[in-house]
Design a protein that fits this description.
With 247 residues, this protein is α+β, with helices and mostly antiparallel strands. The chain folds into two domains: 64 residues, Winged helix-like DNA-binding domain superfamily/Winged helix DNA-binding domain (Arc Repressor Mutant, subunit A), CATH 1.10.10.10; 159 residues, Chorismate lyase-like (Chorismate lyase). It has eight helices and ten strands. The chain has a six-stranded antiparallel sheet with strand order 4-5-6-9-8-7. Strand 8 and strand 9 form a beta hairpin. The model has no long low-confidence stretch (mean pLDDT 91).
Length: 247
């Protein structure tokens, strides 16, 4: 089927037609675009025209090229607010996404200097380290590394961590209400283990959130290093301006 011949360049018409297919859901997120030959036949244009249209869609973030596999519709970004202390499951449910988890590792390890400082314990103290991939609608969005004091950690890992959120276990099962948290966010590149868990190339952009959560008495109970895919999520917050003193 040839595209409508109007005054815009052919590549722009192909780009607009494919963008409309993506917007309507005819090409849903994660689906593969037809090969170049198929698009050439559909629109009655040259390979150069098809490639220019695809390049523009890549630049717009509508599609992504996976080497050796083809061109795929990009996953729509998750917009997550950082305004209160919530867990991944709560965040995704609030956004209408289906959350799930994949436990990758759980073991007792000695706390390094950073972990010990965040959990207010001597370096070398034994802690439980839990590594999970967190998924939204079946797509890996975050690689979470959680550290808990050994005593509570050994209780937590006795549960099915593919199904039960750690926050819920701490609060509902072990009577450890989470009262506040400190967040530290920075842009980093994905180390090989993080990239593997998230299904992306090593060195890809990720957000690293370090979060220390406190229970009553401002006792640190949960320290996490959360690696979010930079291409799948954006973080927003709201800030209030402090009233200015009158002169």
């Amino acid at each position: 089927m040839n595209i409508e011949r109007d005054h815009s360049p052919l590549y722009a018409q192909v780009e607009a037609a494919l963008a409309a297919d993506i917007s309507s859901g005819a090409l849903p997120p994660g689906s593969q675009l037809p090969p170049e030959d198929g698009l050439m036949e559909r629109f009655g244009v040259s390979r150069t025209t098809v490639r220019k249209a695809i390049e523009n869609l890549v630049a717009r973030g509508e599609v992504e090229i996976r080497r050796g596999k083809g061109t795929f519709v990009a996953q729509r970004k998750i917009i997550q607010e950082l305004t209160e202390l919530t867990g991944f499951v709560e965040d995704m449910q609030a956004l209408g996404r289906k959350p799930s988890a994949r436990l990758l590792d759980k073991q007792v390890v000695p706390a390094n200097a950073d972990v010990a400082r965040q959990l207010a314990m001597p370096p070398g103290s034994l802690v439980m380290r839990i590594q999970r991939a967190r998924l939204a609608d079946g797509v890996a969005v975050s690689f979470d590394e959680t550290y808990l004091p050994r005593e509570i950690g050994e209780k937590v890992v006795a549960h099915d961590l593919n199904a039960e959120p750690i926050f819920s276990l701490l609060e509902d099962k072990y009577d450890l209400p989470l009262t506040e948290a400190e967040y530290r966010l920075e842009a980093v590149t994905a180390a090989p283990d993080v990239a593997q868990a998230l299904g992306m190339a090593p060195g890809s952009a990720v957000f690293l959130i370090e979060r220390t959560s406190y229970t009553e008495g401002r006792r640190p109970i949960d320290y996490e290093k959360l690696h979010y895919r930079g291409d799948l999520i954006s973080f927003v917050t709201r800030l209030a301006r402090r009233p200015r003193a009158r002169p």
